[in-house]
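Protein modeling request. Please complete all fields; requests missing the sequence field cannot be processed.
Requester role: graduate student
Desired output: 3D structure, token encoding
Chains: 1
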Amino acid sequence: MKQKLTLQALDTLLQNRFKEGFLSLKDLPNPSTFKDMDKATERIVSAIQNKEKITIIGDYDVDGVTSTTLMKLFFEEIDYPIEWIIPNRFKDGYGLSANIIPRILGTDLAITVDNGISAVYAAKLCKEEGIELIITDHHLLAPEVPECFAIIDQKQEECTFPYEDVCGAQIAWYLIASLKNALAIKINMMSYMELTAIAIIADMMPLQHINRAMVEAGIQALNKSTRPAIRAFLEHSQKEALNAEDIGFFLAPLLNAAGRMEDASFAVEFLASTNIYDARVRLERLIDFNTLRKATEQELTQKALAQVNVSDAVIVVEGEDWHEGVVGIVAARVARHHEKPCIVLSNNGEGTLKGSGRSFGDCDLFSITNRCREHLEKFGGHQAAIGLSMKKEALEAFKIQIQKNYATGNYVQNVEDPDIVGALDFANISFDLTKAVKKYEPYGQGNPSPKFISYDVEILQADTMGKEGEHLRFSFAQEGIVMAGVQFKTREVYDIGSKCSVVYTVNENHFRGKVTLQLMVEKIVTGNI
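Delivered output (529 residues):
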């Protein structure tokens, strides 16, 4: 049983997440605090002065798409022609690789954004072809780093940038700020901040320290933006303003869908649209990709769930020709459903399994998979998410090894959601509560939306809603107080009149000029806990 929560206790609890207090843009460190930032800036300035051919190499997720767009927009603003390329997930694989070298031949200076720190072989090929290389990345360094002109990555030991958890687009933003200073030009850095905020949220950076400041400023800029892509998205979503949740749950999946289903360059073209007509057409294309992504993901999630061995501590499932673009999302869904780490692999029919994993609870999935390296062909990622490939014949040995590694990690299976901050009686759900919660927005990674639990609640009503009845609308009662509730993406059936405990966040529902409070239901446990 969780302790009863007061408004004061909630405020203190949320405040404790921000050890440095709330930072603002004036607290942003200087670009020069990044190792090699000044060196890279000088080299790019010299390339511009000498009219060298510059190529930007991005990545196919939202962070990579946004980083590429930032660089493209900057060079357009200073009227300097560049090439840009985002590797195709299916044909090229990840980041700067040997596969894309033939496409960048003739380049004098290549700049990676949101990738490159593991591209040892590709960097060697660049050198052989006379392509000078600057790597900007934010991922962990492997024991061997690529040989190149400059590396800007805050995870390098010699880097004095004070924050470890920043994304690729933030580093691209800093590079633009550094170039602006070096070129002594006037450009509005806030117009780049709005796209950077999208990447910070989508790449699940902790919304604390400068990340919070950049997201807050970026969202304000987004809501005043004249950028055609943003206007088109607001128009489509019928919203007057965006918040962090709109970006995380609606805009980011649309941008991601292009790279998952076909090619991420469609997302760059959408973000860089120069007029509303192009932006609308390009947005429709992203919506089509996302609709296809949802259907594919739903189908594969069912297939993956059917394969799960519930006695395993780490779930590993595989299937024939499962769509590589959605295996990561499927892994996340299965992990959430079974409350265990999950790895989903696709068999390409040629003896190779490729896939993604998502962690759950306090398990360091990167660490336990890293200790299975002898079974793997390729591997990368971080604590919560990994990508990997292996030969089909290595699968059984890999499964045995990863269960052993999990067991030696002494991980605790989290029975209770750590984001539940305390117990609330319906009598204490008020606009004062939502006001206290709003004070600590934006919520996201590292600053999760506070969830509450209410015990001894009666289910008065549970009606399906949505096109396919995939959501539920509730009426709950506790000690004579009735609250409305909504639960998305559930097929659960509840008995009317039954008693339960409800885990939820509280939402202000604006409808026809009237504001009411409703529970956004996360979980219902029938019977009391």
